[in-house]
């Protein structure tokens, strides 16, 4: 869908580039996560990909054609949902939708979409009366109005309670299952882990890693097995190397002779990988 090669971008007032020659591909039909600490260049990359910023160096192809050569038809193809929902708060949800719908040639079935996000009953309420979660869901509806081929989502679940976050994640998955492509940034690693086929880690304008969450966990995981067991009425633990565990006499003896409480493989979380790759804790992010 997108091929980005050696992308360099410097804001006009800056002397140093914000993006220092990044290359990546977003494959058609995948959910691609873009992760990194605050100020790494995620939003800048996203703004370039949606044609809000130009004057970059390097090459960006969308659907095989340079992004610079795409005209208004590009905007018919994409849906964008940025972190801060911006709506006309004195208008109802439906009035907002009617307004933004007119910006596009192609439209999706809005009634179905409103029902899917759980806003159908509230469609005639003023947006000023909406909760944050409702506004974020309305934002998603806005991004989907033109039945896009590709969605750009910036922190889509930020500030949502678990139920609203699940509704949104399920909608993103359905979009993908129906052939859509997604570019997503988030500081919530569990959401990224659940959603993304591949992730890129960007640090100070450079990409440090690109792979599937699963492959990254294998790469950064410890490949150990920790057994917690009971001995003398106390919980003890032993750690074994995962390689050739089936032939490990100590391990086999332990699980045959002791009361095992838990067995864990030493696989790491995306959160740990974030900290290892970026060198920055997640609470440093915005
Ligand atoms: N309009 C601008 N003019 C000059 N510098 C900018 C501008 N916008 C962003 N920057 C700088 O570019 C760098 C990358 O910013 P960007 O917003 O892309 O980071 P980010 O990874 O999206 O961060 P966050 O997670 O906080 O959203 C930062 O150092 C920032 O100060």
Order of helices and strands: EEEHEEHEHHHEHEHEEHEEHEH
Determine the number of helices (DSSP H or I, runs of at least 4 residues). Answer: 10
CATH architecture of the largest domain: 3-Layer(aba) Sandwich
Count all strands and give the number: 13
Q: Which term fits the overall shape? A: globular
Question: In angstroms, what separates the terminal alpha carbons?
Answer: 29 Å
Question: Into how many domains do the coordinates divide?
Answer: 2
- What structural class is derived from the secondary structure elements? alpha/beta
Percent helix among the residues?
25-40%
| Percentage of residues in strands | 25-35%
CATH topology of the largest domain: Rossmann fold
Q: Just give the CATH class of the largest domain.
A: Alpha Beta
In terms of per-residue confidence, which ranges show pLDDT below 50 for 5 or more consecutive residues?
A: none
Bound molecules: adenosine-5'-triphosphate
Radius of gyration: 23 Å
Read across the widest sheet, the strand sequence of neighbours is: 6-7-8-3-9-10
Mean pLDDT: 90
CATH homologous superfamily placement of the largest domain: P-loop containing nucleotide triphosphate hydrolases
Instruction: Describe the main β-sheet briefly.
Output: 6 strands, mixed
GO molecular function: ATP binding
Keywords: ATP-binding, Nucleotide-binding, Transport
Organism: Paracholeplasma vituli
InterPro entries: AAA+_ATPase (IPR003593), ABC_transporter-like_ATP-bd (IPR003439), ABC_transporter_ATP-binding (IPR050763), P-loop_NTPase (IPR027417)
């Amino acid at each position: 869908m997108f091929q980005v090669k050696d992308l360099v971008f410097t804001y006009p007032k800056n002397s140093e580039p914000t993006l220092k020659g990044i290359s990546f591909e977003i494959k058609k039909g995948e959910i691609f996560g873009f992760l990194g600490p605050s100020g790494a260049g995620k939003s800048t990359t996203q703004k370039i990909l949606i044609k809000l910023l130009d004057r970059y160096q390097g090459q960006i192809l969308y659907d095989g054609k340079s992004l610079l050569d795409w005209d208004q038809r590009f905007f018919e193809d994409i849906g964008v949902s940025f972190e801060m929902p911006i709506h006309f708060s004195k208008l109802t949800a439906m009035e907002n939708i009617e307004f933004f719908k007119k910006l596009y040639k192609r439209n999706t079935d809005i009634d179905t979409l409103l029902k899917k996000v759980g806003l159908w009953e509230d469609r005639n309420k003023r947006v000023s009366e909406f909760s944050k979660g409702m506004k974020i869901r309305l934002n998603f509806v806005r991004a989907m109005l033109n039945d896009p081929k590709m969605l750009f989502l910036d922190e889509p679940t930020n500030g949502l309670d678990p139920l609203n976050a699940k509704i949104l994640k399920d909608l993103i998955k359905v979009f993908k299952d129906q052939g859509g492509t997604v570019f997503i940034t988030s500081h919530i690693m569990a959401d990224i882990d659940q959603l993304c086929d591949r992730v890129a880690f960007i640090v100070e304008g450079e990409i440090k890693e690109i792979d599937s969450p699963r492959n990254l966990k294998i790469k950064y995981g410890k490949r150990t097995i920790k057994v917690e067991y009971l001995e003398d009425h106390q919980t003890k633990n032993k750690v074994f190397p995962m390689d050739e565990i089936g032939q490990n006499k100590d391990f086999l003896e332990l699980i045959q002779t002791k009361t095992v409480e838990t067995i864990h493989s030493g696989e790491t979380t995306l959160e740990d990988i974030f900290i290892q790759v970026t060198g920055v804790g997640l609470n440093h992010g915005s």
